[in-house]
């Protein structure tokens, strides 16, 4: 027997949903009542594990492969989610890639890859979602604390891609507000995931940059995403979940 939640009857797509923040978000949305499509690129088995977690909560789920670097797949996964789950209400743009390094070492191929996934892919998925979702839908994008504060060299390309999401989010809020569709941006700080573990070689320095002196958890980010998925009067906002990284 499933419990009642604020998202009962809603269908969500979480891109990059096979691990880390994406996986935690998919499960949290399911706990709040949503059926969830889990987007992934390479982690098929991990995505299926998330599907099983969602189904164990009494919700429907499906794993969908989509490469955000490909324009057709970045948009097409929205249609696939709607077809698989019979509707579409919530898009969580979580798929992203981080390439760090000195400015002079970044290749054109790296520039194209990061911008295609982190910016173009988010734009195309949001465009497809706006065409699919009914009035009152939600578009929630995962950005980065580095769009607010760059603590050191090496982040030029990554920060450029994440800063672009602020403009996109505000423009989406204006464009879609008449339909009651909200668009918001979540800015995580250092989060304990397999990509950036709290016991990794650079973890101490990252934790020291926060006011709380620690890494956050994927669940802490997911709780904010779930809140925004249910909120009706928050749009065009940039919300930090960063332990005071920008303080």
Automatic annotation (TrEMBL):
List the residue ranges forming a coiled coil, or say none: none
Which keywords annotate this record?
Oxidoreductase
Q: What is this protein called?
A: SDR family oxidoreductase
What species was this sequence derived from?
Answer: Streptomyces tibetensis
| Residue intervals of the Ketoreductase domain | 10-194
Asked if the Swiss-Prot or TrEMBL record annotates the protein with the keyword Oxidoreductase, the reply is yes
SMART domains with a match to the protein in the record: PKS_KR
State the family it belongs to.
Belongs to the short-chain dehydrogenases/reductases (SDR) family.
């Amino acid at each position: 027997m499933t419990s009642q939640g604020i998202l009962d009857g809603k269908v969500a797509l979480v891109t990059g949903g096979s691990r880390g923040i994406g996986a935690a978000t998919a499960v949290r949305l399911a706990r709040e009542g949503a059926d969830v499509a889990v987007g992934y690129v390479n982690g098929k088995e991990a995505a299926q594990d998330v599907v099983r977690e969602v189904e164990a909560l009494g919700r429907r789920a499906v794993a969908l492969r989509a490469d955000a670097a490909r324009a057709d797949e970045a948009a097409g996964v929205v249609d696939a989610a709607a077809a698989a789950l019979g509707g579409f209400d919530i898009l969580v743009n979580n798929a992203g890639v981080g390439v760090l390094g000195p400015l002079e070492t970044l290749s054109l191929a790296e520039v194209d890859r990061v911008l295609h996934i982190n910016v173009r892919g988010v734009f195309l998925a949001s465009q497809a979602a706006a065409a699919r979702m009914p009035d009152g839908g939600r578009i929630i994008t995962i950005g980065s604390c580095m769009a607010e504060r760059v603590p050191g060299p090496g982040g030029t390309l990554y920060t450029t891609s994440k800063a672009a999401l602020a403009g996109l989010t505000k423009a989406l809020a204006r464009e879609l507000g008449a339909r009651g569709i909200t668009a918001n941006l979540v800015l995580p700080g250092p989060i304990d995931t397999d990509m950036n573990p709290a016991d990794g070689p650079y973890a101490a320095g990252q934790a020291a940059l926060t006011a709380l002196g620690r890494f956050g958890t994927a669940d802490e980010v997911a709780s904010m995403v779930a809140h925004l998925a249910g909120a009706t009067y928050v749009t065009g906002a940039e919300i930090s979940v960063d332990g005071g990284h920008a303080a």
